[in-house]
Amino acid sequence: MASDVSVQRVTGLERKVLWMERLFCYSCERLVPFEQRTVQETYSVRGEDITISAQVNHCQECGEQIFHEELDRKNLDIVYAEFRKRRGIVSPERIRSIRSQYNLSQRALGRLLRLGEITIHRYENGSLPSDAHNELLILIENPLNVKKLLDEVGSDLSPSEEADLRSLLGVLLRTETQKLFVESAKKLLGDYSPTIYSGFAKFNPDKVKEMVALVCNNVEGLSKTKLMKMLFYSDFLHFKGYGVSISGLRYAHLPYGPAVHGWNTMLAWLEREGIIEISPSEQDWDLITSSWDLEAVMEDSEVETLGTVIKTLGTLSASALSDLTHLEKAYRETKKGDLISYEYALDLSLEI
Ligand SMILES: [Zn+2]
Predict the structure, then answer these.
(1) What is this structure's pTM?
(2) How far is the CA of 41 from the centre of ligand 1 (A)?
């Protein structure tokens, strides 16, 4: 039994006789039949009392308790689990998952934290980490803190282990930054309640992804301007037919016609998520393409609306499309920088 635990047995609650087995009783000095009892046991772990229903074996001849390693271990596991819960101490599973996040062996993690070679092995096998070690383990769940540790404190890792870890950290930190970027971009684009300016729909990032990918897949030589016009017509046409937009995006009056309010943020978000690729074309504008696998979240009627827009306007040049939008009441009756109300959709030149 670990040195930081003492135990005190209290009441016998239940007895179960196991006739077929024998255990060695040190009082009787021979193999004896024994019985298993469930007793309330109070363990003291680092000064904290923890009471559990423990299984213990007793000699049937003299009544003395017989030590049984496996049972004792099971009881301790229950006690430690309770202690961990109360004190916020990392579980063996959590340590294993930290280790696998950084692709480290038990020994390597020990060397990274300068805890000695077998400390992690002991913790993963159920020993309780000290408070200081516990804090350290929780801290390094964040890759940023591992980088800080390597940069500012150093470790006992070999140069090649450290190089591997640093390159993995690079990937993890980029992923983390990426996640933060995507989250804040979505928030920036869609942090509003549905109103007439969003076509009475809530911003739906999954539908935006699918709309953009569908336009990319079906329109040749797609520029940013052209993509904006295709999205504008799709959302407004759908509102005209069904009283609700597809994406929940808001559109603003910009010099080249209506465009998604926050279009720059939107394109950066879609590019980071791997939905679109933006590359320079032979002309002086950027070409937008997509090789993303669709997830089919749009409703049939929404796909039909998009199809109508692509069929009617998809072959027009960006400037022809821009000219067309300038004729729309949605554009004529709004000023530069204004959000465009979907009420203008009723006067849209397209029909479903
Ligand atoms: Zn005995």
Answers:
(1) 0.60
(2) 21
